[in-house]
What does this fold into?
Amino acid sequence: MKTSRKLLLFACTLCMLTLALSVSIISNAADIKTVQLTAVSNSKNGLSVSWKKVGGVDGYIIYRQRMGSSGWKRLAKIEKASVVSYTDKSVRNGVRYTYTMKAYVGSGKSESSNRISRVYCAVPTVSSVKNISNGVYLKWKECAGADEYRIYRKSSGSDWKRIACVSPKNLSYTDSRVKSAVRYMYQIRQVCSKNISASGGNQKTVTFISAPKDLCATASVSGIQLSWKAVMGADRYYVFRKSSGEKSWKKVSEIKGSLTAWTDKFAPKGKTGYYRLRAVILSPKATSAYSSKAGAARLDKSTKMVALTFDDGPYRPVTNQILDVLQKYNSRATFFVVGSRVSTYSDCIRRAVSLGCEIGNHTYNHTTLTTASDSQILKEISDSNDALKKYTGCKASIVRAPGGSVNSRVLSLVPYPFISWSVDTMDWSHRSVSRTVQNIKNNVRDGSIVLMHDLYYSTGDATEIIVPWLIDQGYQIVTVSEMMKYKGTGLTNGKVYYQAW
Ligand code: ZN
It folds into this structure.
Protein backbone atom coordinates (compact mmCIF):
# COMPACT_ATOMS: atom_id res chain seq x y z
CA MET A 1 0.00 0.00 0.00
CA LYS A 2 2.65 2.46 1.14
CA THR A 3 4.95 1.54 -1.72
CA SER A 4 2.30 2.15 -4.35
CA ARG A 5 1.45 5.54 -2.86
CA LYS A 6 5.10 6.53 -3.00
CA LEU A 7 5.25 5.39 -6.61
CA LEU A 8 2.22 7.51 -7.46
CA LEU A 9 3.76 10.54 -5.78
CA PHE A 10 6.93 9.98 -7.76
CA ALA A 11 5.01 9.72 -11.04
CA CYS A 12 3.13 12.93 -10.32
CA THR A 13 6.27 14.81 -9.45
CA LEU A 14 7.78 13.64 -12.73
CA CYS A 15 4.73 14.85 -14.53
CA MET A 16 4.87 18.30 -13.05
CA LEU A 17 8.57 18.53 -13.78
CA THR A 18 7.96 17.70 -17.43
CA LEU A 19 5.24 20.33 -17.63
CA ALA A 20 7.40 22.99 -15.99
CA LEU A 21 10.21 22.10 -18.37
CA SER A 22 8.05 22.37 -21.48
CA VAL A 23 6.55 25.68 -20.35
CA SER A 24 10.05 27.09 -19.72
CA ILE A 25 11.20 26.05 -23.21
CA ILE A 26 8.44 27.91 -25.02
CA SER A 27 8.56 31.05 -22.91
CA ASN A 28 11.80 32.74 -23.56
CA ALA A 29 11.07 36.43 -23.62
CA ALA A 30 10.24 38.00 -20.29
CA ASP A 31 9.84 41.41 -21.89
CA ILE A 32 6.77 40.40 -23.96
CA LYS A 33 3.65 41.28 -21.99
CA THR A 34 1.59 38.39 -20.65
CA VAL A 35 -1.98 38.03 -21.93
CA GLN A 36 -4.90 37.83 -19.54
CA LEU A 37 -7.71 35.43 -20.32
CA THR A 38 -10.99 37.01 -19.26
CA ALA A 39 -13.58 34.33 -20.00
CA VAL A 40 -14.34 31.00 -21.59
CA SER A 41 -18.01 30.60 -22.26
CA ASN A 42 -20.45 28.38 -24.05
CA SER A 43 -21.57 29.84 -27.32
CA LYS A 44 -23.71 28.68 -30.19
CA ASN A 45 -20.82 27.08 -32.08
CA GLY A 46 -18.37 26.04 -29.42
CA LEU A 47 -16.38 27.42 -26.50
CA SER A 48 -15.71 31.08 -26.85
CA VAL A 49 -12.36 32.25 -25.40
CA SER A 50 -11.80 35.94 -24.76
CA TRP A 51 -8.89 37.98 -23.47
CA LYS A 52 -7.62 41.46 -22.88
CA LYS A 53 -5.87 43.12 -25.76
CA VAL A 54 -2.11 43.47 -25.40
CA GLY A 55 -0.25 46.36 -27.00
CA GLY A 56 2.98 45.97 -29.01
CA VAL A 57 2.64 42.31 -29.93
CA ASP A 58 2.16 40.52 -33.28
CA GLY A 59 -0.61 38.25 -32.08
CA TYR A 60 -1.52 35.39 -29.80
CA ILE A 61 -1.20 31.63 -29.53
CA ILE A 62 -3.93 29.68 -27.78
CA TYR A 63 -3.27 26.36 -26.04
CA ARG A 64 -5.86 23.88 -24.91
CA GLN A 65 -5.88 20.91 -22.59
CA ARG A 66 -8.71 18.41 -22.63
CA MET A 67 -9.73 17.03 -19.29
CA GLY A 68 -8.30 13.56 -18.85
CA SER A 69 -5.29 14.19 -21.04
CA SER A 70 -2.04 15.55 -19.66
CA GLY A 71 -0.75 17.26 -22.77
CA TRP A 72 -1.34 20.78 -24.01
CA LYS A 73 -2.26 21.27 -27.61
CA ARG A 74 -1.50 24.37 -29.63
CA LEU A 75 -5.00 25.30 -30.78
CA ALA A 76 -4.64 28.42 -32.87
CA LYS A 77 -2.38 31.25 -33.83
CA ILE A 78 -4.10 34.61 -34.04
CA GLU A 79 -2.01 36.89 -36.22
CA LYS A 80 -3.58 40.13 -35.17
CA ALA A 81 -3.10 41.93 -31.86
CA SER A 82 -6.50 43.61 -32.00
CA VAL A 83 -8.45 40.31 -32.01
CA VAL A 84 -9.67 39.51 -28.51
CA SER A 85 -11.77 36.39 -28.89
CA TYR A 86 -11.69 32.99 -30.50
CA THR A 87 -14.29 30.25 -30.77
CA ASP A 88 -13.03 26.73 -30.34
CA LYS A 89 -15.36 24.66 -32.46
CA SER A 90 -13.60 21.31 -32.11
CA VAL A 91 -15.12 20.57 -28.74
CA ARG A 92 -17.29 17.72 -27.53
CA ASN A 93 -20.42 17.94 -25.47
CA GLY A 94 -19.93 17.45 -21.73
CA VAL A 95 -16.12 17.59 -21.87
CA ARG A 96 -14.10 20.08 -19.78
CA TYR A 97 -11.38 22.06 -21.58
CA THR A 98 -8.73 24.31 -20.07
CA TYR A 99 -7.24 27.22 -22.00
CA THR A 100 -4.12 29.29 -21.68
CA MET A 101 -2.41 31.60 -24.16
CA LYS A 102 0.67 33.57 -24.96
CA ALA A 103 1.33 36.74 -26.84
CA TYR A 104 4.13 36.68 -29.39
CA VAL A 105 6.46 39.07 -31.14
CA GLY A 106 8.33 37.49 -34.02
CA SER A 107 9.51 34.18 -32.67
CA GLY A 108 9.49 35.34 -29.07
CA LYS A 109 6.67 34.40 -26.75
CA SER A 110 5.38 35.80 -23.49
CA GLU A 111 4.81 33.87 -20.28
CA SER A 112 1.66 31.72 -20.21
CA SER A 113 -1.51 33.53 -19.27
CA ASN A 114 -3.83 32.51 -16.48
CA ARG A 115 -5.90 29.37 -17.14
CA ILE A 116 -9.64 29.11 -17.44
CA SER A 117 -11.55 25.91 -17.84
CA ARG A 118 -15.10 25.26 -18.91
CA VAL A 119 -17.33 22.30 -19.78
CA TYR A 120 -18.65 22.54 -23.30
CA CYS A 121 -22.44 22.30 -23.60
CA ALA A 122 -23.62 22.11 -27.19
CA VAL A 123 -26.72 24.03 -28.15
CA PRO A 124 -29.47 21.53 -28.97
CA THR A 125 -31.16 21.75 -32.35
CA VAL A 126 -34.93 21.79 -32.45
CA SER A 127 -35.74 19.46 -35.34
CA SER A 128 -39.51 19.86 -35.57
CA VAL A 129 -42.62 21.33 -34.01
CA LYS A 130 -46.14 20.31 -34.92
CA ASN A 131 -49.70 20.45 -33.70
CA ILE A 132 -51.03 17.29 -32.17
CA SER A 133 -54.41 16.75 -30.56
CA ASN A 134 -53.37 17.81 -27.07
CA GLY A 135 -50.79 20.50 -27.75
CA VAL A 136 -47.59 21.33 -29.58
CA TYR A 137 -45.18 18.44 -30.04
CA LEU A 138 -41.51 19.29 -30.39
CA LYS A 139 -38.52 17.12 -31.12
CA TRP A 140 -34.83 17.88 -30.90
CA LYS A 141 -31.48 16.29 -31.72
CA GLU A 142 -29.61 14.49 -29.00
CA CYS A 143 -26.62 16.09 -27.26
CA ALA A 144 -24.72 13.04 -26.03
CA GLY A 145 -23.89 13.53 -22.36
CA ALA A 146 -26.68 15.94 -21.53
CA ASP A 147 -27.98 15.82 -17.96
CA GLU A 148 -31.16 17.71 -18.71
CA TYR A 149 -32.92 19.55 -21.52
CA ARG A 150 -34.64 22.85 -20.86
CA ILE A 151 -37.43 24.01 -23.09
CA TYR A 152 -38.04 27.70 -23.68
CA ARG A 153 -41.10 29.22 -25.26
CA LYS A 154 -42.08 32.65 -26.46
CA SER A 155 -45.48 33.75 -27.63
CA SER A 156 -46.24 37.04 -29.32
CA GLY A 157 -46.05 39.88 -26.85
CA SER A 158 -44.17 37.97 -24.18
CA ASP A 159 -40.55 37.13 -23.38
CA TRP A 160 -38.78 33.81 -23.54
CA LYS A 161 -39.85 31.65 -20.67
CA ARG A 162 -38.59 28.29 -19.48
CA ILE A 163 -41.58 25.97 -19.63
CA ALA A 164 -40.09 22.58 -18.82
CA CYS A 165 -37.00 20.61 -17.81
CA VAL A 166 -36.91 17.08 -19.09
CA SER A 167 -34.65 14.11 -18.48
CA PRO A 168 -31.98 13.32 -21.11
CA LYS A 169 -33.84 10.13 -22.02
CA ASN A 170 -36.39 12.29 -23.79
CA LEU A 171 -35.88 13.90 -27.15
CA SER A 172 -39.43 15.19 -27.43
CA TYR A 173 -41.93 17.13 -25.41
CA THR A 174 -45.60 17.99 -25.67
CA ASP A 175 -46.50 21.49 -24.62
CA SER A 176 -50.13 21.14 -23.67
CA ARG A 177 -50.47 24.54 -22.05
CA VAL A 178 -51.20 26.22 -25.33
CA LYS A 179 -54.14 28.18 -26.63
CA SER A 180 -55.76 27.78 -29.98
CA ALA A 181 -54.80 30.39 -32.62
CA VAL A 182 -51.71 31.58 -30.69
CA ARG A 183 -48.27 31.59 -32.31
CA TYR A 184 -45.45 30.00 -30.29
CA MET A 185 -41.70 29.93 -30.74
CA TYR A 186 -39.52 27.25 -29.15
CA GLN A 187 -35.84 26.79 -28.41
CA ILE A 188 -33.92 24.36 -26.28
CA ARG A 189 -30.92 24.52 -23.98
CA GLN A 190 -29.24 21.68 -22.19
CA VAL A 191 -27.41 21.26 -18.93
CA CYS A 192 -24.28 19.11 -18.74
CA SER A 193 -21.91 18.86 -15.77
CA LYS A 194 -23.65 21.82 -14.12
CA ASN A 195 -23.08 24.07 -17.12
CA ILE A 196 -25.81 25.32 -19.35
CA SER A 197 -25.58 25.67 -23.09
CA ALA A 198 -25.83 29.07 -24.67
CA SER A 199 -29.12 30.49 -25.77
CA GLY A 200 -29.55 31.44 -29.40
CA GLY A 201 -29.95 27.98 -30.84
CA ASN A 202 -32.34 27.52 -33.70
CA GLN A 203 -35.95 28.43 -33.09
CA LYS A 204 -39.05 26.81 -34.52
CA THR A 205 -42.38 28.51 -34.74
CA VAL A 206 -45.86 27.09 -34.91
CA THR A 207 -49.37 28.46 -34.57
CA PHE A 208 -51.25 26.13 -32.34
CA ILE A 209 -54.76 25.23 -33.35
CA SER A 210 -56.86 22.70 -31.47
CA ALA A 211 -58.22 19.65 -33.20
CA PRO A 212 -62.01 19.73 -33.51
CA LYS A 213 -63.63 17.89 -30.63
CA ASP A 214 -66.79 15.86 -30.16
CA LEU A 215 -67.37 14.95 -33.77
CA CYS A 216 -70.72 13.19 -34.12
CA ALA A 217 -72.12 11.61 -37.25
CA THR A 218 -75.73 10.62 -37.79
CA ALA A 219 -77.48 9.20 -40.78
CA SER A 220 -80.30 11.17 -42.30
CA VAL A 221 -82.36 10.75 -45.42
CA SER A 222 -80.44 13.51 -47.20
CA GLY A 223 -77.00 12.32 -46.22
CA ILE A 224 -74.76 12.00 -43.21
CA GLN A 225 -74.97 14.85 -40.73
CA LEU A 226 -71.79 15.88 -38.96
CA SER A 227 -71.53 18.18 -35.98
CA TRP A 228 -68.59 19.25 -33.83
CA LYS A 229 -67.46 21.81 -31.31
CA ALA A 230 -66.20 25.13 -32.64
CA VAL A 231 -62.40 25.58 -32.57
CA MET A 232 -61.14 28.98 -31.46
CA GLY A 233 -59.59 30.88 -34.35
CA ALA A 234 -60.44 28.37 -37.08
CA ASP A 235 -60.89 29.88 -40.55
CA ARG A 236 -61.85 26.56 -42.12
CA TYR A 237 -62.61 22.97 -41.28
CA TYR A 238 -61.37 20.32 -43.66
CA VAL A 239 -63.61 17.27 -43.75
CA PHE A 240 -62.07 13.91 -44.61
CA ARG A 241 -64.06 10.81 -45.44
CA LYS A 242 -63.25 7.16 -45.84
CA SER A 243 -66.06 4.83 -46.82
CA SER A 244 -66.05 1.17 -45.89
CA GLY A 245 -63.94 -0.72 -48.38
CA GLU A 246 -61.78 2.32 -49.20
CA LYS A 247 -58.16 2.35 -48.21
CA SER A 248 -57.39 6.02 -47.86
CA TRP A 249 -58.94 9.20 -46.49
CA LYS A 250 -60.18 11.75 -48.98
CA LYS A 251 -60.79 15.43 -48.37
CA VAL A 252 -64.45 15.90 -49.25
CA SER A 253 -65.13 19.45 -48.14
CA GLU A 254 -63.84 22.74 -46.77
CA ILE A 255 -66.29 24.31 -44.34
CA LYS A 256 -66.29 27.92 -43.17
CA GLY A 257 -64.86 28.41 -39.68
CA SER A 258 -68.10 29.91 -38.43
CA LEU A 259 -70.00 26.64 -38.98
CA THR A 260 -70.06 23.60 -36.71
CA ALA A 261 -72.26 21.29 -38.74
CA TRP A 262 -72.35 19.92 -42.26
CA THR A 263 -74.30 17.28 -44.15
CA ASP A 264 -72.45 15.03 -46.56
CA LYS A 265 -74.98 14.59 -49.35
CA PHE A 266 -72.54 12.63 -51.46
CA ALA A 267 -71.85 9.89 -48.93
CA PRO A 268 -72.09 6.60 -50.81
CA LYS A 269 -75.33 4.78 -50.12
CA GLY A 270 -75.27 1.43 -48.37
CA LYS A 271 -71.83 2.01 -46.88
CA THR A 272 -70.52 3.32 -43.62
CA GLY A 273 -68.85 6.68 -44.05
CA TYR A 274 -66.12 7.43 -41.55
CA TYR A 275 -65.23 11.06 -40.96
CA ARG A 276 -62.53 13.12 -39.34
CA LEU A 277 -61.85 16.83 -39.35
CA ARG A 278 -58.99 19.28 -39.17
CA ALA A 279 -59.26 22.90 -38.16
CA VAL A 280 -57.21 25.31 -40.27
CA ILE A 281 -55.94 28.86 -39.91
CA LEU A 282 -55.27 30.33 -43.34
CA SER A 283 -52.58 32.92 -42.66
CA PRO A 284 -49.99 32.11 -41.55
CA LYS A 285 -51.20 28.64 -42.39
CA ALA A 286 -51.67 26.31 -39.47
CA THR A 287 -53.40 22.96 -39.42
CA SER A 288 -54.65 21.12 -36.39
CA ALA A 289 -54.26 17.45 -35.71
CA TYR A 290 -57.11 15.22 -36.87
CA SER A 291 -60.24 15.03 -34.74
CA SER A 292 -61.39 11.66 -33.48
CA LYS A 293 -63.35 9.62 -36.00
CA ALA A 294 -67.09 9.27 -36.30
CA GLY A 295 -69.10 7.19 -38.70
CA ALA A 296 -72.62 6.66 -39.95
CA ALA A 297 -74.21 5.16 -43.01
CA ARG A 298 -76.65 6.01 -45.73
CA LEU A 299 -78.76 2.98 -46.15
CA ASP A 300 -80.63 1.19 -48.82
CA LYS A 301 -84.30 1.42 -47.84
CA SER A 302 -85.36 -1.54 -49.90
CA THR A 303 -82.94 -3.95 -48.20
CA LYS A 304 -83.79 -5.71 -44.90
CA MET A 305 -82.59 -4.09 -41.69
CA VAL A 306 -82.08 -5.22 -38.14
CA ALA A 307 -80.97 -3.26 -35.08
CA LEU A 308 -78.85 -5.14 -32.54
CA THR A 309 -78.96 -3.50 -29.12
CA PHE A 310 -76.68 -4.14 -26.16
CA ASP A 311 -77.70 -3.04 -22.65
CA ASP A 312 -76.12 -2.55 -19.22
CA GLY A 313 -72.50 -2.09 -20.40
CA PRO A 314 -70.01 -1.12 -21.39
CA TYR A 315 -67.76 -3.92 -20.19
CA ARG A 316 -64.37 -3.65 -21.86
CA PRO A 317 -63.63 -7.26 -22.93
CA VAL A 318 -67.14 -7.99 -24.21
CA THR A 319 -67.91 -4.55 -25.69
CA ASN A 320 -64.61 -4.63 -27.56
CA GLN A 321 -65.26 -8.15 -28.82
CA ILE A 322 -68.62 -6.98 -30.18
CA LEU A 323 -67.06 -3.85 -31.71
CA ASP A 324 -64.39 -6.00 -33.38
CA VAL A 325 -67.12 -8.06 -35.04
CA LEU A 326 -69.11 -4.98 -36.10
CA GLN A 327 -66.00 -3.35 -37.51
CA LYS A 328 -65.06 -6.50 -39.43
CA TYR A 329 -68.51 -6.70 -41.03
CA ASN A 330 -69.05 -2.96 -41.60
CA SER A 331 -72.03 -3.01 -39.28
CA ARG A 332 -73.28 -0.89 -36.40
CA ALA A 333 -75.23 -1.49 -33.23
CA THR A 334 -76.83 0.52 -30.45
CA PHE A 335 -75.40 0.42 -26.95
CA PHE A 336 -77.73 1.44 -24.13
CA VAL A 337 -75.10 2.28 -21.57
CA VAL A 338 -75.50 2.71 -17.82
CA GLY A 339 -74.40 6.25 -16.93
CA SER A 340 -72.39 5.26 -13.84
CA ARG A 341 -70.14 3.12 -16.07
CA VAL A 342 -69.40 5.83 -18.63
CA SER A 343 -66.30 7.34 -17.02
CA THR A 344 -64.68 3.92 -16.47
CA TYR A 345 -65.41 2.69 -19.97
CA SER A 346 -65.31 5.92 -21.95
CA ASP A 347 -62.70 4.40 -24.29
CA CYS A 348 -65.23 1.73 -25.36
CA ILE A 349 -67.92 4.34 -25.97
CA ARG A 350 -65.61 6.55 -28.00
CA ARG A 351 -64.58 3.56 -30.06
CA ALA A 352 -68.23 2.65 -30.63
CA VAL A 353 -68.98 6.22 -31.76
CA SER A 354 -65.97 6.19 -34.08
CA LEU A 355 -67.35 3.05 -35.75
CA GLY A 356 -70.72 4.68 -36.30
CA CYS A 357 -72.52 2.91 -33.47
CA GLU A 358 -75.28 4.65 -31.56
CA ILE A 359 -75.17 5.29 -27.83
CA GLY A 360 -78.45 5.20 -25.94
CA ASN A 361 -79.34 6.25 -22.41
CA HIS A 362 -80.10 3.39 -19.98
CA THR A 363 -80.35 5.66 -16.87
CA TYR A 364 -77.46 6.48 -14.55
CA ASN A 365 -77.96 3.75 -11.93
CA HIS A 366 -80.11 1.25 -13.82
CA THR A 367 -83.07 2.39 -11.76
CA THR A 368 -86.58 1.06 -12.44
CA LEU A 369 -88.30 4.22 -13.60
CA THR A 370 -91.91 3.23 -12.89
CA THR A 371 -91.29 3.14 -9.13
CA ALA A 372 -89.02 6.20 -8.98
CA SER A 373 -90.17 9.74 -8.10
CA ASP A 374 -90.55 12.33 -10.85
CA SER A 375 -87.38 14.17 -9.88
CA GLN A 376 -85.47 10.88 -9.57
CA ILE A 377 -86.54 9.86 -13.07
CA LEU A 378 -85.36 13.13 -14.60
CA LYS A 379 -82.10 12.99 -12.69
CA GLU A 380 -81.41 9.41 -13.83
CA ILE A 381 -81.79 10.48 -17.45
CA SER A 382 -79.93 13.79 -17.26
CA ASP A 383 -77.02 12.44 -15.15
CA SER A 384 -76.47 9.77 -17.73
CA ASN A 385 -76.55 12.22 -20.62
CA ASP A 386 -74.21 14.59 -18.77
CA ALA A 387 -71.71 11.76 -18.32
CA LEU A 388 -71.95 10.88 -22.02
CA LYS A 389 -71.49 14.50 -23.00
CA LYS A 390 -68.52 14.91 -20.67
CA TYR A 391 -66.64 11.74 -21.63
CA THR A 392 -67.59 11.22 -25.26
CA GLY A 393 -68.97 14.54 -26.48
CA CYS A 394 -72.16 13.03 -27.85
CA LYS A 395 -75.42 12.98 -25.92
CA ALA A 396 -77.86 10.13 -26.35
CA SER A 397 -81.07 10.92 -28.16
CA ILE A 398 -82.91 7.70 -27.29
CA VAL A 399 -83.68 6.02 -23.96
CA ARG A 400 -84.23 2.44 -22.94
CA ALA A 401 -85.89 2.02 -19.56
CA PRO A 402 -84.26 -0.61 -17.32
CA GLY A 403 -86.31 -3.80 -17.64
CA GLY A 404 -88.32 -2.04 -20.33
CA SER A 405 -90.59 -0.74 -17.56
CA VAL A 406 -92.45 2.39 -18.55
CA ASN A 407 -95.85 3.86 -17.78
CA SER A 408 -97.69 6.97 -18.87
CA ARG A 409 -96.06 9.05 -16.11
CA VAL A 410 -92.54 8.08 -17.22
CA LEU A 411 -93.39 8.66 -20.88
CA SER A 412 -94.84 12.10 -20.30
CA LEU A 413 -91.94 13.13 -18.07
CA VAL A 414 -88.93 12.09 -20.15
CA PRO A 415 -88.41 14.11 -23.35
CA TYR A 416 -86.94 11.28 -25.42
CA PRO A 417 -88.23 8.38 -27.50
CA PHE A 418 -88.19 5.04 -25.62
CA ILE A 419 -86.78 1.99 -27.38
CA SER A 420 -88.04 -1.42 -26.44
CA TRP A 421 -87.40 -4.65 -28.42
CA SER A 422 -89.12 -7.29 -30.48
CA VAL A 423 -86.54 -10.09 -30.14
CA ASP A 424 -85.51 -10.97 -26.60
CA THR A 425 -82.47 -13.27 -26.60
CA MET A 426 -82.67 -13.81 -22.80
CA ASP A 427 -78.86 -13.89 -22.96
CA TRP A 428 -78.55 -12.59 -19.39
CA SER A 429 -80.50 -15.53 -18.01
CA HIS A 430 -79.19 -18.62 -19.83
CA ARG A 431 -75.73 -17.28 -20.81
CA SER A 432 -75.67 -19.79 -23.66
CA VAL A 433 -74.08 -18.91 -26.98
CA SER A 434 -76.25 -21.33 -28.94
CA ARG A 435 -79.54 -20.26 -27.29
CA THR A 436 -78.77 -16.58 -27.93
CA VAL A 437 -77.99 -17.34 -31.57
CA GLN A 438 -81.04 -19.58 -31.94
CA ASN A 439 -83.40 -16.98 -30.42
CA ILE A 440 -82.31 -14.47 -33.03
CA LYS A 441 -82.39 -16.92 -35.93
CA ASN A 442 -85.93 -18.01 -35.01
CA ASN A 443 -87.45 -14.57 -34.48
CA VAL A 444 -85.64 -11.94 -36.52
CA ARG A 445 -87.38 -10.20 -39.42
CA ASP A 446 -86.99 -6.98 -41.35
CA GLY A 447 -87.20 -4.11 -38.83
CA SER A 448 -86.54 -6.17 -35.66
CA ILE A 449 -84.91 -4.69 -32.59
CA VAL A 450 -82.85 -7.38 -30.83
CA LEU A 451 -82.10 -7.21 -27.10
CA MET A 452 -78.74 -8.42 -25.76
CA HIS A 453 -76.34 -7.42 -22.97
CA ASP A 454 -72.65 -6.65 -23.46
CA LEU A 455 -71.75 -7.97 -20.02
CA TYR A 456 -71.42 -11.66 -20.84
CA TYR A 457 -68.74 -13.49 -22.78
CA SER A 458 -71.46 -15.76 -24.19
CA THR A 459 -73.10 -12.68 -25.75
CA GLY A 460 -69.80 -11.59 -27.32
CA ASP A 461 -69.32 -15.10 -28.76
CA ALA A 462 -72.94 -15.20 -30.01
CA THR A 463 -72.38 -11.85 -31.78
CA GLU A 464 -69.45 -13.38 -33.66
CA ILE A 465 -71.82 -16.00 -35.05
CA ILE A 466 -74.98 -13.97 -35.58
CA VAL A 467 -73.51 -10.95 -37.41
CA PRO A 468 -72.16 -12.91 -40.41
CA TRP A 469 -75.34 -15.04 -40.40
CA LEU A 470 -77.58 -11.94 -40.59
CA ILE A 471 -75.48 -10.50 -43.40
CA ASP A 472 -75.77 -13.84 -45.21
CA GLN A 473 -79.54 -13.54 -44.86
CA GLY A 474 -79.39 -10.16 -46.55
CA TYR A 475 -79.76 -7.88 -43.53
CA GLN A 476 -78.15 -4.48 -43.10
CA ILE A 477 -77.13 -4.33 -39.43
CA VAL A 478 -77.84 -0.77 -38.37
CA THR A 479 -78.45 1.47 -35.37
CA VAL A 480 -81.93 1.99 -33.94
CA SER A 481 -82.08 5.58 -35.17
CA GLU A 482 -80.91 4.64 -38.65
CA MET A 483 -83.51 1.89 -38.91
CA MET A 484 -86.32 4.08 -37.60
CA LYS A 485 -85.43 6.79 -40.08
CA TYR A 486 -85.28 4.53 -43.11
CA LYS A 487 -87.74 1.76 -42.28
CA GLY A 488 -90.01 3.18 -39.64
CA THR A 489 -91.91 6.32 -38.99
CA GLY A 490 -89.08 8.21 -37.33
CA LEU A 491 -88.86 8.75 -33.59
CA THR A 492 -91.10 10.87 -31.38
CA ASN A 493 -90.46 11.85 -27.78
CA GLY A 494 -92.56 10.04 -25.18
CA LYS A 495 -93.38 7.11 -27.47
CA VAL A 496 -92.24 3.50 -27.13
CA TYR A 497 -90.85 1.64 -30.14
CA TYR A 498 -90.63 -2.14 -30.36
CA GLN A 499 -89.62 -2.51 -33.99
CA ALA A 500 -89.65 -0.56 -37.21
CA TRP A 501 -93.07 -1.48 -38.55
ZN1 ZN B 1 -80.74 -3.09 -18.33
Observations:
- Residues 17-27 have pLDDT under 50 and may be disordered.
- The chain is about 20% helix and 35% strand.
